[in-house]
Amino acid sequence: MNLILLEPPDWLDASHARLTDARRLQHLRDVHRAQPGDRLTVGALDGRIGRAELLTLDDAEATLRIEALDREPPPPLPVHLLLALPRPRMLARTLEHVAALGVKRLTLLHTARVEKSYWQSPELRPEKIRQHLLLGLEQARDTRLPEVAFETRFKPFLEDRLPALLANRRGLLAHPGMPAACPRGIDDPTLLAIGPEGGFVDYEVERLLESGFEGIHLGERILRVETAVTALLARLF
Amino acid sequence: MNLILLEPPDWLDASHARLTDARRLQHLRDVHRAQPGDRLTVGALDGRIGRAELLTLDDAEATLRIEALDREPPPPLPVHLLLALPRPRMLARTLEHVAALGVKRLTLLHTARVEKSYWQSPELRPEKIRQHLLLGLEQARDTRLPEVAFETRFKPFLEDRLPALLANRRGLLAHPGMPAACPRGIDDPTLLAIGPEGGFVDYEVERLLESGFEGIHLGERILRVETAVTALLARLF
Q: Domain Ribosomal RNA small subunit methyltransferase E methyltransferase, which positions (chains A, B) (predicted)?
């Protein structure tokens, strides 16, 4: 937690906030070893970053006086990530990684090799997803919460929603065996498609290429989804 | 497990192997849903990659007939990774990531912000480290086991062993706030230093820069060690 992210319920008035959740209180006590009088980095959810003085800290609450919110959060990556739904435990970590790396739009997609049961996982509940995204923002000192959408049927997504997403973005399909190496240091608005463990099936690859994606690869190594997501984002942007 | 990595005890003779460990048997049954007659990708530890026919599979063992070992494993990254010892759970995942990404030399270093207790963790036992590295190799279809060294004292390492490591490598120190952005797509032999959660302390940064490292950064976002390691390797090489 490199930033205390203040959500609307945390605010007492325009310059004071109160934290009452066990997770953040414990982190302030045990990791920061914070004391009243300490200056801490804070940010307003979807707003600016600044600093606050810790006024009180006990087992039930922490109170903060906000001194300034005078900096913009770091710039987002110019990417909309289209990710085949990973298995639940990997989804949790992947949400933290992508939030920390600056992804602001994420669509979780059903594909042939996504197990149907994954869509019933408690990890997909809005409050769970939000919690993982907040952890990523707190880690990276960002404040802008990513938007997450679900597409539970491949073909309707491809036919009805994909054309609009690709209308003003460069489509990149990351898939082993594609002809082009992953480009480096681009700044185009990009729609980046990444398959599940085991990859997109041939039919899906063909349809995505027909729809306007360029196929790219990261070399002959096969990476886990969470490793591939970080590696692709770091190399592309 | 995209590759069955055959270790010396697995070999029955020059063209047959037997697996008896529960992890790989379960993976063959439950993930691959393998049947006798199936062709599987195999590799000899520290050797070549090829294919084998599954002859038998039951709860106690799998037997394989090696048909060919005719391909070299993917090329390694030209990097020696110098990593402040992460906390045990993150170490486990980081070992898998770096093995999958092609790191072949890893030195785990004590620094001021590494908790001393981490050095007593069971995760540092050679067999545990080896197991995580093997998982990374199996994932990436690689066969060459990385070498892992421990440096439990910063100053003796810096004074006695670092000069030789830097003699024929480009030293890159990844640290927030360094003046230069992380370079992209280099192929120099590199010694890449990455600090612990919370970073290197100022004294350590100064000493590493004096020793010949170039300071580089990944932008204003603060990443977890496991995310930073993958992002740096993907951007650099």
A: 74-236
How many CA atoms, within 13 angstroms, populate the side-chain half-sphere of residue B217? 12
Based on the domain organization, do A182 and A96 belong to the same domain? yes
Mark whether A120 and A212 lie in a shared domain.
yes
Of A25, A40, A71, the position where a domain reaches its end is A71
Q: How far is B160 from chain A (nearest CA, A)?
A: 33
Helix ranges (H only) for chain B are 22-26, 88-101, 126-140, 154-156, 162-167, 202-210, 225-236
Q: What is the mean pLDDT of residues A185-202?
A: 96
Cα-based distances in Å from A120 to A123, A125, B213: 8, 9, 49
Taking residues A125-139, what's their average pLDDT? 97
Q: What total number of domains does chain A contain? A: 2
CATH number of the domain within which A203 lies: 3.40.1280.10
A139 CB near a chain B CB, below 8 Å? yes
CB contact under 8 A, B100 and A142: no
Q: Mutate which of A194, A227, A233, A235 to test chain B, going by most B C-beta atoms within 10 A? A: A227
* Model ipTM value: 0.95
Which SS3 state, helix, strand or coil, does residue A196 take?
A: coil
Q: Do A100 and B223 touch (CB under 8 A)?
A: yes
Does A226 score more than 90 pLDDT? yes
Q: Which tokens go with A208?
A: 């995505």
Q: How far apart are CA B112 and CA B198, in angstroms?
A: 10
Residues of A in contact with B102 (CB under 8 A): 221
Q: Does the distance separating the beta carbons of A221 and B100 come in below 8 Å?
A: yes
Same domain (yes/no): B114, B13:
no
Partner-chain residue, chosen from B97, B101, B222, that has the shortest CB–CB distance to A139? B222
Per-residue pLDDT tens for B174-216? 999 999 999 999 999 999 999 999 999 999 999 999 999 999 9
| pLDDT tens, residue by residue, B103-158 | 999 999 999 999 999 999 999 999 999 999 999 999 999 999 999 999 999 999 99
> Is the same domain home to B120 and B175?
yes
- Neighboring chain A residues of B71 at a CB cutoff of 8 Å: none
Query: Tens digit of pLDDT for each residue in A51-65?
Result: 999 999 999 999 999
Which range of residues forms the domain containing residue A206? 79-236
A211 close contact with B: CB closer than 8 A: no
